[in-house]
Amino acid sequence: MKTEAFLFSGVAAFFLVTDVAYIWWSGKEPAGGAALTVSFLMASVIAFFCAMNHRRKGRRPEDRPDSEIHERAGVVDFFPPQSGYPPLTALGATLLMLGIVFGLWLFIAGAGITMAGIIGMALQFVDAGD
Question: Membrane-spanning residues where (predicted)?
């Protein structure tokens, strides 16, 4: 993850320099400056995540030239079985977007359904009491 952290730090630095230059020369046009600032912040978050992962977990087998293939063998991750929460979240997001067009009441209903779907997905496989 150290290589990825350096890579995204470079991307963030590029967006920062570009953002400062754009704001300096563009004058009063705020849209480009806002987009470049958000790009800088997103690249910074990814770089920070990669750096903290490297610090916490150490070097991965992919980062070492002397690693063996079998070091990455085994279970990759947990993939959940069927779940009704993704369609519920999609329905809520659809109602959110339609609420922008048709009215606040539909937007609020969509927000509630979307939040129920997101919370359900996040907590579906959490063991209560363990």
Answer: 5-25, 31-51, 95-123
In a domain? residue 71:
no
Query: Residue 108 belongs to what domain range?
Result: 85-123
Contacts of residues 119-128 at CB distance under 8 Å and 24 or more positions apart, as own/partner, are 120/85, 120/88, 121/83, 121/85, 121/86, 121/89, 124/80, 124/83, 124/85, 125/78, 125/80
Read off the tokens for 113: 């359904």
pLDDT in tens, 73-128: 777 777 777 888 999 999 999 999 999 999 999 999 999 999 999 999 888 887 66
Q: Is residue 70 part of a domain?
A: no
